[in-house]
Specification:
With 185 residues, the chain is mainly α. The protein has eight helices and no strands. The chain has helices at 2-11, 19-38, 45-66, 74-77, 80-96, 104-123, 132-156, 162-184. Helix 1 runs parallel beside helix 8. The chain is globular and about 45 Å long. It starts with a helix and ends with a helix.
């Protein structure tokens, strides 16, 4: 995440609007990474990591929704995406729910926010020119996939190569979001 922060700072003008939202998202992602690395020693840090990533997604939601254009939203043209994404989020929570224990409310909130982040990337996909729009949507999709894999591995059923798949999709997600921001210029 620090490398992506440097890439973002060095690839865009200092006065470029809304860059601070993406930088904040990367910072809170990095903070979440640190918390999750230490979680095995201090289990309470899982909540701190979850909160950090929640803030990351909120930064990306605010950034995506701040993009202005006269073009119609993809979600306005294809509202079925809203149902699909909300159904996916609800389905994942439903599968995980029996094993969430005291984390039921935080995980439901997190699922709602990450679904909103994905929806907001789709909302602007017709408002941003190619290839930035594709990078934003790919990044958001990969972030949802990464978080889904993490949740399944932690709360439902651990699986082989989980760590590698989670980190691969997570790093690619962040790279695509940063690349989308840079290419949007």
């Amino acid at each position: 995440m620090p490398a992506l922060m440097l890439l973002l700072v060095n690839s865009t003008d200092a006065c470029f609007n809304r860059r601070s939202l993406v930088l904040a998202g990367l910072f809170f992602s990095w903070l979440g990474d640190v918390f999750l690395l230490l979680e095995s020693r201090y289990p309470i840090l899982f909540i701190a990591g979850l909160a950090s990533f929640l803030i990351t997604h909120l930064c990306y939601v605010v950034y995506f929704l701040s993009v202005k254009s006269s073009a119609d939203s993809l979600l306005k043209k294809q509202p079925v995406y809203i149902l699909f994404i909300l159904g996916y989020g609800a389905g994942l929570v439903w599968i995980l729910f029996p094993s969430l224990g005291d984390l039921k409310i935080p995980v439901i909130l997190y699922a709602a926010v990450i679904s909103t982040m994905l929806l907001s990337s789709l909302h602007i996909s017709r408002k941003v020119t190619a290839p930035a729009n594709s990078y934003f949507v790919a990044g958001a999709l990969l972030f949802v996939l990464s978080d889904s894999l993490l949740a399944i591995n932690k709360f439902y059923q651990p699986f082989a190569s989980a760590g590698m798949l989670i980190m691969l999709t997570y790093c690619a997600a962040q790279f695509f979001i940063v690349t989308g921001f840079i290419r949007k210029r």
